[in-house]
């Protein structure tokens, strides 16, 4: 008989996953036209800060560059798009659809001073990368005080006659 170490945090993770699955199936919105259910799709995104940039990575499997829209307006970066359903309706039996599809939109508020013209994006193997250059830090201007030269008066000097 093997002894198995009990890890309570793993139990909580399992419970959370099951609750998410349960609520996900209860609150799914109906799909248009076929009477089934459509799972809401929200792509996973990471935002990393480097010395010079904010870098956003988004997992967009099954999408192409044409399916994704990136906009910057009033310090808000919005990534949106749509993944279309690839399954067909089968009238003779049942099928199971687990892959989520549909439109999505994610918005992030950027710090002040971002130049929207300098934002760059690339797309490689289903991963979107958006590079946002950090704004230049406003640095206080240091003003140096010039030393004042004081002319020394000679004590031996006689006052000028008037």
TrEMBL record:
<feature type="region of interest" description="Disordered">
    <location>
        <begin position="134"/>
        <end position="162"/>
    </location>
</feature>
<keyword id="KW-0346">Stress response</keyword>
<dbReference type="InterPro" id="IPR031107">
    <property type="entry name" value="Small_HSP"/>
</dbReference>
<dbReference type="Pfam" id="PF00011">
    <property type="entry name" value="HSP20"/>
</dbReference>
<feature type="domain" description="SHSP">
    <location>
        <begin position="36"/>
        <end position="153"/>
    </location>
</feature>
<dbReference type="InterPro" id="IPR008978">
    <property type="entry name" value="HSP20-like_chaperone"/>
</dbReference>
<comment type="similarity">
    <text>Belongs to the small heat shock protein (HSP20) family.</text>
</comment>
<dbReference type="InterPro" id="IPR002068">
    <property type="entry name" value="A-crystallin/Hsp20_dom"/>
</dbReference>
<protein>
    <submittedName>
        <fullName>Heat shock protein Hsp20</fullName>
    </submittedName>
</protein>
């Amino acid at each position: 008989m093997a002894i198995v170490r009990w890890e309570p945090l793993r139990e909580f993770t399992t419970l959370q996953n099951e609750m998410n699955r349960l609520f996900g199936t209860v609150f799914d919105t109906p799909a248009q036209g076929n009477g089934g259910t459509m799972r809401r799709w929200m792509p996973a995104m990471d935002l990393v800060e480097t010395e010079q940039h904010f870098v956003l990575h988004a997992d967009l499997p099954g999408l192409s560059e044409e399916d994704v829209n990136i906009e910057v307006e009033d310090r808000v970066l919005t990534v949106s798009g749509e993944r279309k359903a690839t399954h067909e309706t089968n009238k003779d039996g049942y099928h199971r659809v687990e892959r989520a599809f549909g439109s999505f939109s994610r918005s992030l508020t950027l710090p002040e001073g971002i130049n929207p013209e300098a934002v760059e994006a690339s797309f490689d193997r289903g991963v979107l990368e958006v590079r946002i250059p950090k704004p230049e830090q406003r640095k206080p201007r240091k003003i140096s005080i010039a030393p004042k030269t004081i002319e020394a008066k000679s004590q031996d000097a006689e006052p000028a006659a008037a």
